[in-house]
Write a structure and sequence with these properties.
Layout: H1 8-11, E1 44-49, E2 52-54, E3 60-67, E4 74-80, E5 83-86, E6 88-93, E7 96-101, E8 110-118, E9 134-139, E10 142-147, E11 150-152, E12 158-165, E13 175-181, E14 195-196, E15 198-203, E16 206-211, E17 220-229, H2 231-235, E18 247-252
């Protein structure tokens, strides 16, 4: 008689494994001790935060929430084009893990698959229990339009709406900021000739930004761009953060006024 792997532990409960041809062996009338069969819990993912990143991002820590996570055993796996990478994982609780997606996996626009596997807890027939897979998007940071795209010289502070893709809100220390650049900007050493604008996150495809009146005093052709950055890093002149394409913004000459005779 063949004994399946899942019954292996139950077999240990028998002091004698009787032969089918041995008529002297009869079934014991004494109750056998109960030997538990390990049925590992299958992990489940309910959400991943954040659930996206922008191409060119640095190492990114994500929070995975779900159920049946095991301390010292659960790991988050990242699948790209059929190739799986085990991420550096920290156990928070039975319902929460954190994991680091390395920058090397965030260099191109792609959809990654994240799952949790309870390594070292084996179901002999199916391997280590693995969760459902949830998508994680890596998107390009870009601007498609700005409204309005012009202002009259001498205008007061102006709020513009920037539409695009890949905008983020407080992704760790990283957030999307709009920046103004023009030929008349003189930057200090180590800094780009760009001015950070007061920016409000509306969605991952929309921002609003305030162009101060001081930048609208005279006619000029300028550009706006978006950078996903640590504001403190920007103030220190660090420019290693992803930037969008620039988009044009024009400050026009004042309208000519005619006096009535």
């Amino acid at each position: 008689m063949r004994i399946s792997a899942r019954m292996a532990m139950a077999v240990v409960a028998l002091s004698i494994a009787p032969s089918c041809n041995d008529n002297r062996v009869t079934q014991s009338t004494e109750p056998s001790p109960m030997v538990p069969v390990i049925n590992p819990m299958v992990p489940v993912i309910n959400s991943v935060t954040p659930d996206s990143a922008v191409t060119g991002s640095s190492d990114l820590t994500v929070t995975v929430k779900g159920a049946n996570f095991v301390k010292g055993s659960s790991v988050v796996k990242c699948v790209e084009s059929g190739s799986a990478t085990v991420l550096t994982t920290t156990f928070v609780s039975e319902t929460e893990l954190t994991a680091v997606i390395p920058a090397a996996l965030l260099q191109g626009a792609v959809t990654l698959g994240l799952s949790v596997q309870n390594m070292g807890i084996f179901d002999r027939s199916n391997g280590s229990p693995q969760s459902n897979e949830i998508s994680f998007s890596v998107r390009n940071l870009g601007i498609t339009s700005i409204s309005p795209a012009t202002a009259i010289a001498g205008s007061p502070d102006l709020t513009v709406v920037i539409t695009g893709t890949g905008f983020v809100k407080s992704q760790g220390a990283i957030t999307s900021v709009a920046k103004w650049t023009a030929r008349n900007i003189v930057a200090p050493p180590g800094h780009s000739p760009e001015i950070v604008l007061t920016t409000r996150f509306l969605s991952d495809t929309e921002l609003s930004a305030v162009i101060p009146a001081t930048l609208l005093k005279d006619p000029i052709d300028a550009q706006l761009l978006v950078q996903n950055a640590d504001i403190m890093g920007l103030s220190d002149g660090y420019e290693g953060y992803p930037k969008s394409n620039p988009i044009s913004f024009s400050v026009l000459g004042s309208a000519i006024r005619f006096n009535r005779e």
